[in-house]
Design a protein that fits this description.
single chain; alpha/beta; 5-stranded parallel beta sheet; 11 helices; 12% strand; globular
Length: 240
């Protein structure tokens, strides 16, 4: 993980009055990576945390059913409160846009998540319970139902692209020479998703890289994965 300033903003909420925050950013900026870093920091501090990503859960009708899907006996908020035993804790909900009406996906799931957030806020009389949700910027800005799920005094934390310095440092750490990259390529790699694709695409570290668009990066990425499958399947046929 590459450290994100947004993680520090989330961590600064600890030790204060429990509240609600939303992490936003355009697709590929690394919102989930930011939350992973945040959760890891909570674990090192022994702060109880329950993290959920909605895009991997089949829609349900109640918060209790959501808990059952996760392997619990009750609603995730109640389980977290029981585990925290009165101490500061954090509920993290990633991929809130999976229930967005703008994206036209599991929109019926939205009422369940709204109920879960209301339930979590209701538990603050017993313990300081922070709520963090993450959502694509487009859905957050264009789906009013998402925005009404959090109180007006919520905190918005934006996750942006890497700086050129961060890209250079990462490339150097991976054995690449940043001076061999064109300015347009460096700009493209500022998007965390693109940088991840590049590093996973098997580019020759001894030669200037050849790519001009994100599509080029996707193409090289899948070529590398196909080569990897062929190596593992050898001598059998590659059914890619």
């Amino acid at each position: 993980l590459i450290h994100r300033a947004s993680t520090d903003t989330l961590l600064s909420k600890l030790g204060t009055t429990a509240g609600d925050s939303v992490v936003t950013g355009k697709a590929g900026t690394g919102k989930t990576g930011c939350l992973v870093e945040f959760v890891e920091q909570l674990l090192t501090r022994s702060i109880p945390v329950l993290a959920i990503r909605l895009d991997r859960i089949e829609p349900v009708s109640t918060a209790s059913e959501l808990g059952t899907k996760l392997g619990f006996e009750e609603s995730p908020a109640l389980i977290l409160a029981a585990a925290a035993q009165g101490q500061e804790s954090v509920l993290v909900i990633d991929q809130l846009d999976a229930a967005s009406t703008t994206s036209g996906r599991a929109t019926s799931f939205l009422e369940v998540i709204e109920g879960l957030l209301i339930e979590a806020r209701g538990l603050r009389a017993r313990l300081p319970l922070h709520v963090i949700v993450a959502c694509r910027e487009f859905d957050w800005n264009n789906d009013h139902r998402l925005r009404t799920m959090l109180p007006k005094d919520h905190t918005r934390v934006d996750v942006g692209e890497f700086t050129f310095a961060e890209v250079s440092e990462t490339l150097t750490a991976e054995g690449f020479d940043p001076t061999r990259f064109q300015p347009s390529q460096m700009k493209l790699l500022r998007l965390p998703q693109n940088l991840s694709l590049f590093l996973g695409s098997g580019f020759d570290r001894a030669r200037p890289p050849v790519f001009n668009t994100a599509i080029d990066l996707f193409d090289e990425y899948w070529k590398e994965k196909q080569r990897a499958v062929a190596r593992r399947a050898s001598p059998a046929s590659d059914y890619w």
